[in-house]
Amino acid sequence: MATIDVDFEVYKALTIRRETEEMTYNDVLRQLLKLGGEQAAPVAPTAAGSLIVKGAEFPEGTQFRATYKGQTYTGAIKGGVWIDEKGKVQNSPSEAAYNITDNHVNGWRFWECRRPSDDSWRSIDSLRPKK
């Protein structure tokens, strides 16, 4: 296997994009380079405007919220992508959490969502398929 040298800033940027400990740096690079195959990107918009992330489906109009240091942050699925309150596209729950905390946190436990069919908010981690 070949190795490549990267500076700390690149390493940090790649690390932010790892959604779980199981996601390798190779997986991150394949996602960023839009390479297909078995290591396909874990985030995929569907034709109906839903977003599927690691097997969890977030339909168009799903709202996200998280509270950090007393401030509430929000986002929503619009056009099949996760858009934060500043209008920036988020590629994963962990990336969205990092952009708020400036720390590596488990985005699946950080965020709550309310899908259009839901009556209440729930942890997005509860929507992931159990292995």
Flag low-confidence runs.
Answer: 37-42
Total of DSSP H or I helical runs spanning 4+ residues: 4
Number of strands: 9
Determine the strand fraction and express it as a percent band. Answer: 25-35%
Major sheet strand order? 7-6-5-4-8-9
Classify the helix fraction into a percent range: 10-25%
Query: What oligomeric assembly is this protein in?
Result: single chain
Q: Give the number of domains.
A: 1
N-C termini distance: 29 Å
The succession of helices and strands, N to C, reads: HHEEEEEEEHHEE
**If you compute it from the alpha carbons, what radius of gyration comes out, rounded to the nearest whole angstrom?**
15 Å
Question: Largest sheet, if any?
Answer: 6 strands, antiparallel
Shape: globular
- Average pLDDT number: 84
Supply the helix-strand structural class.
alpha+beta
Give an overview in words:
The chain has 131 residues and is of the alpha+beta class. The chain has one domain. The protein has a 6-stranded antiparallel sheet with strand order 7-6-5-4-8-9. Strand 4 and strand 5 form a beta hairpin. The radius of gyration is 15 Å and the shape is globular.
List keywords for this structure.
single chain, 131 residues, alpha+beta, 6-stranded antiparallel sheet, 23% helix, globular
Structure, briefly:
The chain is 23% helix and 26% strand.
Q: Strands, helices and their partners?
A:
Layout: H1 8-16, H2 25-32, E1 43-45, E2 51-53, E3 56-58, E4 63-68, E5 71-78, E6 81-84, E7 89-90, H3 93-101, H4 107-110, E8 112-114, E9 122-123
Antiparallel strand pairs: 1-2, 2-3, 4-5, 4-8, 5-6, 6-7, 8-9
